[in-house]
Amino acid sequence: MSPEESASGGPSPGPSWWPRLLGRLGVAPEGEPSAAPETSGEEPRRRDGGGPDPHPPSLAPDSAHLQAALRTLELSVRRRLDGLLQGNHLGLVPGPGSEAGDARVYQPGDDVRRMDWSVTARTSEPHIRETIADRELETWLVVDLSPSLDFGTGGCEKRDLAVAACAAVVHLTQGGGNRIGAVVANGTGLVRLPARGGTAHVHGLMRRIASTPRAPEGTRGDLVGALEALRNPPRRRGLVVVVSDFLGDTDWSRALRALAVRHDVLAIEVGDLRDEELPDVGTVVLADPESGHSREVTTTPTLRRRFAAEAAAHRDRVAYAIRAAGAGHLRLRTDRDWIADVVRFVVARKRGWSGQGTAPLAGGGRA
């Protein structure tokens, strides 16, 4: 029996399925987020008052408060990223650059090719020479906002997390004459936003991404089309950041490899705990938002184990395809402190300059 077949002989619910129709049975999904409060442009706080809320604000495209939510997101990203990285954003900029910077003490994991032997000999302690990243970087965001992202149980929707990830990339790469553009796909069409610089352009770009309409359920995503749109016509060499949940087939892998030949590529995978595990809630109706198909199942221990195993296998396939393309891989999840995960990735990338491998997660867990 193949992994796609259940004990009853039919297809088992894969990782893109989730009980979106539980309301028909009167069963609420475990961890269903409540309606988002209105935002005032101030940094969100935890409900217990214990510090900044680790989740991005609700960024519903049809919300009357979208502009305020974007201001809240920008404030949170700027304060937390600048505070944790101390203004050093070079870890996301591709390559170590060509201009020599300061020397510092060697740390495990540093690229030995950057050893400064003269300082090492003078101090009798291994040192490496930092380099300053080249300026006028052109960054392109490829943003997947297909229906499978219109869902979340960990404090926000995956769509909100995808937009927040874009805001972090924009903050880490803007300035110094750098230009930022985007290709946004929701399954019904592509929107191309030209690469330009300046604060007004950045704000407009984020507003356009966040206000992308939700596609009707039953609409399939088109990540391949978005990646191909960035290849033709050819863009100047730069940084390409692909933001998606990468659910479904890995038919995008060839287009990703082709982009990585010319550009430094980073794949940001946004997910939710319920993409990986089914809760024990009895009989539920699972629906695939990108095909419109639904199925009633009972969440038995066997089904939950099979679901988790197939979800883990799918994540492994995604990670392999990204790694094979030579791209960096950052995983974010709706129930985690996403900014902390971004910081860990940037720090690890800055040390290695390899641009490959997944950022370590707090506690050694998998996202």
From TrEMBL:
Coiled coil ranges: none
Origin: domain of life: Bacteria
Family annotation (Pfam families): DUF58 (PF01882)
Biased composition (Low complexity): 1-19
Segments for region (Disordered): 1-62
Residues of the DUF58 domain: 102-316
Name assigned to this protein: Uncharacterized protein (DUF58 family)
Species, as recorded: Actinomycetospora corticicola
